[in-house]
Amino acid sequence: MSCSNLTMWVSSKPSLSDSSSLSFCSAMNPFQLPSQNSPTANQSRSSSVTPIHCGIRELRERIDSVKNTQKITEAMKLVAAAKVRRAQEAVVNGRPFSETLVEVLYNINEQLQTEDIDVPLTKARPVKKVALVVVTGDRGLCGGFNNAIIKKAEARMAELRELGLEYTVISVGKKGNSYFLRRPYIPVDRFLEGGTLPTAKEAQAIADDVFSLFVSEEVDKVELLYTKFVSLVKASPVIHTLLPLSPKGEICDVNGVCVDAAEDEFFRLTTREGKLTVERDVVRTKTEEFSPILQFEQDPVQILDALLPLYLNSQILRALQESLASELAARMSAMSNATDNAVELKKTLSIAYNRARQAKITGEIIEIVSGAQALV
Predict the structure, then answer these.
(1) DSSP sequence for 110-140
(2) 313-331 burial, b if ≥16 CB within 10 A, otherwise e?
């Protein structure tokens, strides 16, 4: 039989994405792995493999191909594990400054309530149009990371349409840019691309655009949609109201729920049984409490003018860092599942190859014996 009739199913492990399976495909040898919703995903690996009908040469080539794929996915897993540690350190190190800055701004804003001073970024007005800053990744192979935040954005747009509100999108990331470019009916104010590591310069470019839209009253509210890093196997898309300034002095979503993380997970690479593995450490970030009796020598308006740009920049930079950490964690989990599937696929192919080789040898022996008996 031709090798194109070969189809093999291997159940996959759970991952961050909705489609946690990996497909190893070629023009001659299609290998397909089912999703978690497939009926075979609940069966054992031994009972979920169908018979293989393929030549010995094709099986040998396929085993070599799967070995190479396993090496690639394992390397990508280790690279993502090394990068997610640095990304999470950047998030945790910047969190005390970000949270303290918000508390300072809130305290100054409370002092200005009794004065007749116009501070546009802290003034809430009737909402007619909303700006959505959607942060996605620049690369794939990270499970359902990009799909999750895009679905969150689509759901938020549907809610705004039901409320009769207008909206515009500021897309950050190549995946989000390509998605919105293919849908011209979605109003997009600007397309931005992120780098390999978020910097204050990138955050400032987004903050300048957001600032101009809000101050000119083109939009009455700015919402930041990004993926919050929770743990190595969990990331949740959140909507954070960026402007006007939160009256509670904390980072909240559109429902008023605080999205600050109480605990963080750190990861380190170690060796176990001759292989590199990842271990977790849970730490709690402590921030200094803001003194309610603190007084300012400068004019509060001058302090606000200096701190509000820092506020926008720090919150956007923090969202970019959280999104990057979530993307790397999702890629690490996806590559881990891909490596496990490759190992199981290689094992199954090796068994089929050995059986085919033994059957061929047995057939040749039978032919020799039969020929010798015919000559007697």
Answers:
(1) HHGGGS----GGG-----SEEEEEEE--S--
(2) bbbbbbbbbbbbbbbbbbb
Per-residue tokens: 329: 């964690």
Q: Report pTM.
A: 0.71
* Six token digits for residue 302: 């001058």
Which pairing describes strands 166-172 and 188-192: parallel, antiparallel, or unpaired?
parallel
User: What are the residue numbers of the active site?
Assistant: 142
Identify the CA nearest to 121 among candidates 318, 310, 321, 317. Answer: 310
Token pair, residue 154, equals 């689509």
User: Which residue matches tokens 């799967």?
Assistant: 66
Structure tokens at 211: 């600032």
Which segments of 287-299 does DSSP mark as H helices, in order?
Answer: none
Q: Find, among 325, 323, 330, the residue nearest to 15 by Cα.
A: 330
Q: Is 209 exposed, middle or buried (0-12, 13-18, 19+ CB in 10 A)?
A: middle
Q: Could you list the mean pLDDT of each consecutive 10-residue stretch along the chain, which spans 376 residues?
A: 36 37 37 41 47 80 92 90 83 77 71 63 81 92 91 92 92 93 92 83 89 89 89 84 64 48 46 54 51 68 78 87 90 91 92 89 90 82
Place of tokens 């020799």: 368
Instruction: Identify the sign of the CA torsion 270, 273, 275, 277.
Output: negative
334: buried, middle or exposed (CB in 10 Å: 19+, 13-18, 0-12)?
A: buried
Q: Say if CB 311 and CB 105 are below 8 A apart.
A: yes
257 CB-near residues (< 8 Å, 6+ apart): none
Decide: 81 and 332 in contact? Cβ < 8 Å: yes
The angle formed by the CA atoms of residues 283, 288 and 294, to the nearest 5 degrees, is 170
| Cα 262 from chain centre | 20
Tokens representing 17 are 């994405």
How far is CA 167 from each of CA 48, 128, 170, 192, 219, rounded to the nearest angstrom? 48, 8, 10, 18, 8
Q: Are 150 and 166 in contact (CB under 8 A)?
A: no
